[in-house]
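Suppose you are handed a protein chain with no further information: no name, no annotation, nothing but its sequence. What can you learn? This example shows the usual starting point.
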Amino acid sequence: MISFENDLFKAGFDICHSFPPYLYNKYIDKHSLPLKPLPSEDTCMGYLIGNTKHLWPIFIKWYNSSEEKLVNPLDAYCKRNIDDILKINFIPSTSYQVFWSSESCANKLVSMQRVASCSGLSYLDSKSHLTIHPVYGSWHSFRAVVIVQTKDISFIGSSSISIKSITLPCLLTHKEEEDAQAALRQALKLSDENRLCEQLHGKGPSEQVAAAWIVVRDCVSRGKEFRFGDNQLWYHYTKDTKYLQQ
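A reasonable first move is to predict its three-dimensional structure. Written in structure tokens, the prediction is:
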């Protein structure tokens, strides 16, 4: 798996977190969430793939060298590169399924935040809906969940299969909790709540609305040194390609 992780890192994806898929399935069942379970046979292992600001200069270099006119260049970059890395690293006897964070089909929708939470990667705050990493704070993004299935149990590692659910403690101070909740209320007030998913994961909201959502993330003091650059942040929320050209 070292080659797999190294290839992801070189492409900008510096988060590759392994987890047993059954942890996610137990979580959505316990909380009665309207989500589809992940494949969770004994020969399955999951990988949550994401990035910090490490991705941005690598992606921008790719974008500047491309002549394609893409609706969402970052989604295209993530899908192409992760797909290519998977094909290179997994032998023919190993099958895998990919679930994208940008997915709109209900049957393929996976809650990346809840995968991170139930597997101990990040803390998910139920009130502000922020996902907070012990090191990166709120400054990390998830791109895909990959479920690998193989008959070679040594490839997965028997010790990983028996991992118990590890929930991180709250990583917010009381003041940060209050500030984040107040900022969230303001962001929701400015947003179209009936089209919230479409706004945040589709074309993107206006700059005024985007600014309000950035304030929510800025309420967390942990990991400030990993804060996304301004262009990365504005593109993340607005999906306006003018932020890729500056």
